[in-house]
Known about the structure:
The complex is a heterodimer of chains A (about 325) and B (about 220).
Chain A: H1 2-12, H2 23-40, H3 42-66, H4 68-76, E1 82-86, H5 92-103, E2 108-114, H6 116-126, E3 143-148, H7 157-166, E4 171-176, H8 179-220, H9 222-230, H10 235-278, H11 290-318
Antiparallel strand pairs in A: 1-3, 1-4, 2-3
Helix pairs in contact in A: 1-2, 2-10, 3-8, 3-10, 8-10, 8-11, 10-11
Chain B: E1 2-10, E2 16-25, E3 30-34, H1 41-48, E4 56-61, E5 64-65, H2 74-78, E6 81-84, H3 96-107, H4 111-124, H5 140-152, E7 158-162, H6 170-185, E8 189-194, H7 197-200, E9 206-211, E10 214-215, H8 217-222
Parallel strand pairs in B: 3-8, 3-9, 6-7, 7-8
Antiparallel strand pairs in B: 1-2, 1-4, 4-5, 9-10
Amino acid sequence: MKRATAARREQAAGAAPGRSGGAWLMHRRAARAGLAHCRENPLASMLAVAVMAIALALPALLAALLAQRDALLADWHVEPTLTLFLEPGVDRAAAAGLAESLAADGALATVEVISAEQAFAELAAAVGLSGELDPASNPLPHLLVVKPHASAWRDDEGRALARRLGAQDGVDDVLLDLAWLDRLAAIVRLGERSVLVLTFILLAGTVLVTANSTRVLVHQHGAEIDLYKLVGATDAFVRRPFLYSGAAYGLAAGVAAVLVVEAVLLALAGPIAAVAHAYASDYALAHPGARFVGSLLGLGTLSGWCGAWLGTRHSLRRLADPVN
Amino acid sequence: MIRLVGVSKRYPGGNEALTQVSLEIAEGEFVFLTGHSGAGKSTLLRLAALLERPSRGEVIVDGLNLECVAPRQIPYYRRQLGLIFQDHRLLAERSVFDNVAVPLMVCGLADGEIGRRVRAALDKVGLLHREQARAGTLSSGEQQRVGIARAVVNRPRMLLADEPTGNLDPALSREVLALFRQFNQVGVTVVVATHDTTLLEALPARVVTLTHGRLDTAARSAA
């Protein structure tokens, strides 16, 4: 709306009394002129868009691949689990009692009792000696398998929870069997941060590419701009078509980047399905959603607009302004 | 309409284009500004069009001290002027119509209004039949008439022309001057800077002579 009012102000203060065409007319004309600028130099425009598209596609691709982890983890059914080894003296009834009291703990989602006999039978089956080991010589204690709520598993809270559970009466030892999940989360965080940093760097690149292309365009239209300023064009009027051409570059680059990401994902889909099949998983690559596409187009357009603004800033100051 | 009070203009590098010039041009007046090239004629016009600001002194146009015009207000000030240049400053690739429409586009007028005014201005300079021609294909005289149409399309109260006949033969020059005369007769203040003294005889008008950046009072009284 702010730009619309700027355009209206330009019209209101014109010396020419007469029917003005409304603020949006100014924008329509500027958009048309901006697109005409893009068409004047098809090769330069295409090159600029290609460079910007690559700069946008790189972080977008990384983000798209990183986004696959949710599907991946869901497929692996990984949930943080704590195994509590009870002291040898704790009998089955006491184990059940402890399980009941832990079930009332707000941080825990489920508590399961695995009796020493059950564990022994599973172990014997796992090593292929079912029925051949003497249950009387069972060295295993009773176990409690505990799944905390996700909210109790952030950062160091998982470890604190393990310490708290380990301090319970009758608990001998606590096994955090998913310490690797912490590591994975840390690596994912590192990946996300890298994508963010890379995105900023490459967005700066797209802004500068547009700034340079716009500078060239402004230079080509120098005589025209001089004339506009001589007959009373505001800076906003002169700048507007270039902002539109910059935004058009950015939008086109965004579209191209979406296509690149889709093409890469398509190229990877086959091999990934083969790997997943070999691991008896039905995992498949998730395609980027509307939000992803929208933000890519939005970021592209925004960076093109910003670049155009930068590219006109310097050039406009040079032209037809009073020098003391 | 235009009043200069003790105006000096010194360019970076020490070249002084105007020295202590005081001058008054009344509303509706037709004034020739003459002198050798480098005498300061163009500088005087550029000061009046706010293309430059004086180093010293005041320029007052229509009661407005140009010193008070902030940079952001300059475009709106310029819309009240009609500027004409020796090199026409046309967009050679665009049509005659588009060239004349530029000042109206800048103000954001609606298409219908632009069409009416552009055709009226082209009619006045006798080029209505060429409105779709590319400006670059016109003869020099026609190009200058397009430049004049562009200068008057905004119905300015003041025309400032810098060597408007510089590239034209005597017959075309007289034609252009006759156009200026017509606008002057309907109340437009006209200032024509020229070094061509033969032009001065074509019209009975006040002549202001500049010599090395100073008003040449002797020449003025002679005229």
